[in-house]
Amino acid sequence: MLKAADVYLVLCLVGASHALYKQWIPDTNYESETNWNAGVVPCGRDTAVFPGRGSVYVKTAHSVREMVLPVYGEFILHSGAGFYIGGAPETGGCGTGAEARFNDSDSLRWFDPALWRAAASRDDLDRGPYLFSVHEDGVPCEHDDVVFKAATSFRVDTTSSEDAIPVKSVSVLGKTFTSQDDLFRYLKTASGRMQFHRGAPLALAASVCDDPSGCACDNSANRDRICDAVECPAPLACKKPLRPAGHCCDVCGAIVTVRYALGFNLRSYRQRLQHLFLVQPSYRAVRMAVSKASGPRYVLLGTVRLGASDHIQVVLLDDETGTVAEALARAILEDVRASGPSLGISGAEFQASSGSSGSSGGDGSGSTDVAAVVVGTVFGVILLMALGSLLFFLVHTGRVRMPKVSMPSMPSMPSMPSMPSMPSMPSMPSMPSMLSRSSRKQSEGVGDLGGPLDHGYDNPIFDQPTLMPDVLSGYGAEENAISMTPSAVHFVNPVYDEHETNFTREDFA
């Protein structure tokens, strides 16, 4: 539990962490007093009871009155370690005898950030300093080296929301596994099944983090498991509590977002903050952790995520009102203004639980608040979309009529000059009338020879005047080569003159 007077500085990244060493804190050693229900190791007059399966490491020799063992379990004995059952009681402070029960370790889970501690190097795991981080970064990440203390046994539930738990390497009982085949063979042994149980297997990551700005680590798939193991303090005394990305609880303090560029080194920046700020008396109680982020820097209206890019998040936790944390955030921004370009930092912004905020460019002068620009742009786009939707609705319902826009007419083409008229052809002389004397006689019912006209046989078509027109269409009366009358039908052969064909009956007598 954090004291109210303490202030904590946390440098972390959204959903990511630089390659660190993560060490499992609990153990199942026989000599650890915290592993016994009474808080003391059993002596010669006590009965040692082991209720559940597990792996127990024994460093030295012990004597007990009796032991109750599970059906399935193991003891890992260090050189010279063992048990004396029913032997002479140990001298001094053993008491009259009692039942000492070994605590069940089945409830210890991999995704509990309180059961891990992080350090920048292997040596720091033994003597410190340890690094503080947000909850998601508190458990091992893909590029982290996982260390279980050499002379210890342990038992951890590796239940995961994914098929495997990726890590860089695993060290167990002083042996470091960097090959997936070697690790797989160990997990199949009796000790491996005792130590890692129930859940997903460990998988060694194929990639190596060689980026000076850090490498991404994503435990978001198991965020629910991580947060289920965390108990958030309440109530908070600050005006506007903050929820850092990757954290399960609201905090009082400040959050600084650092934008980096080419030449930025995460490890060097961590060391700079340690030597520049943490040695000052006003920040002596501060703890610090550095990691890398990949994700949105701003959240609009709780849902719209803006400014997605790799960046560094500096979280300053203050269990009081956040005043000291805000002062430290402003000091970090001043350092960015003064030395940002030389550190590979292009700018920074901060938010405080008091409601204050600010920004700084990396060129030594204040820069425009990026969040304000982004938010203003988004609101402008939303406003334009809303106006467009309203206009469409009004037009669609007929409440607003759009003016008719007539297309401009095309200019008329200039008229082509008229072609000169062709000289008219001389008219042909008209043909003389074909109506001869004989035709006049036929119209009177007299034949060509002067006798009565012989009709031959009756034709009902020609005998009915109303069935045929007097004049065929398309031909004038004077131009007909064939004459049809109610009484006769004949044609005139123009080859012969009417005088030549005007024969009488006497001519043939």
Characterization of this structure:
Strands 1, 18, 19, 22, 23 and 24 form a six-stranded antiparallel β-sheet that branches. The protein has a five-stranded mixed β-sheet with strand order 10-2-11-14-15. A three-stranded parallel β-sheet has the order 6-3-9, with no helix packed on it. The longest helix has 27 residues. With 509 residues, it is an alpha/beta fold. The N terminus is likely disordered. Strand 20 and strand 21 form a beta hairpin. Helices cover 18% and strands 21% of the residues.
Number of helices: 9
What share of the residues does DSSP label as strand, in percent?
Answer: 15-25%
The main β sheet shows up as: 6 strands, antiparallel
Average per-residue pLDDT, rounded, comes to 76
Low-pLDDT runs of 5+ residues are 1-17, 297-307, 363-371, 431-442, 471-481
Structural class: alpha/beta
Radius of gyration: 55 Å
Distance between the termini: 161 Å
Brief account:
With 509 residues, the chain is an alpha/beta fold.
Which characteristics define this entry?
509 residues, alpha/beta, 6-stranded antiparallel β-sheet, 5-stranded mixed β-sheet, 9 helices, disordered N terminus
Layout of SSEs?
Layout: E1 7-12, E2 21-24, E3 47-49, E4 55-58, E5 61-64, E6 66-68, E7 74-77, E8 82-85, E9 99-101, E10 116-119, H1 124-127, E11 145-147, E12 156-157, E13 165-167, E14 169-172, E15 175-177, H2 180-187, H3 190-195, E16 196-197, E17 202-204, H4 223-228, E18 253-260, H5 266-276, E19 293-295, E20 298-300, E21 304-306, E22 309-318, H6 323-343, E23 345-352, E24 357-361, H7 370-396, H8 437-443, H9 460-463, E25 482-484, E26 489-491
Parallel strand pairs: 2-11, 3-6, 3-9, 4-7, 5-8, 11-14, 12-16, 13-17
Antiparallel strand pairs: 1-22, 2-10, 14-15, 18-22, 18-23, 19-22, 20-21, 23-24, 25-26
